Amino acid sequence: xxxxxxxxxxxxxLAPEDVADRSFPTAFRGFDPVEVRAFLGRVADELRRLHEHxxxxxxxxEVVAPTSEAEDVVAAARAEAExxxxxxxxxxxxxxxxxxxxxxRVLEEARxxxxxxxxxATDNLKGQQEExxxxxxxxxxxxxxxxxxxxxxxxxxAEAIIEAARERG
Length: 169
Description:
Blueprint: H1 16-20, H2 33-55, H3 68-168
């Protein structure tokens, strides 16, 4: 099947180097990069072993005369080789799926942690803003009281000066 007939494109087989050299973006509170590298190295070794096992050709069989028994042996060997290749590909697909699922889980955890931190920071900022606003309101009220007291005192002093000037006059 191909893309022309509407089916999905066939992906190239996963090579051990693809796994060993794979890198991922770092995230807050992510996995230990050393452990991830070690695991990817193990996966790459397993892939390499499976590729080598699948690529080892059986020794050539000398066929003297085609017989039904020889054909049966060849067919059985071919079926066994195909089964080994299929198992290797299934194992690679399983490992790839597991790595993808783990990557997705780690990414989701990092996003959730970032959202939690952002929400906490926003709450803290709101609290600080409210406290600052409350302090500003108190300071303004205190300044207005002091200004009113100064106006009263200035008025009293002005009236006293005026009264003193009248008495002198």
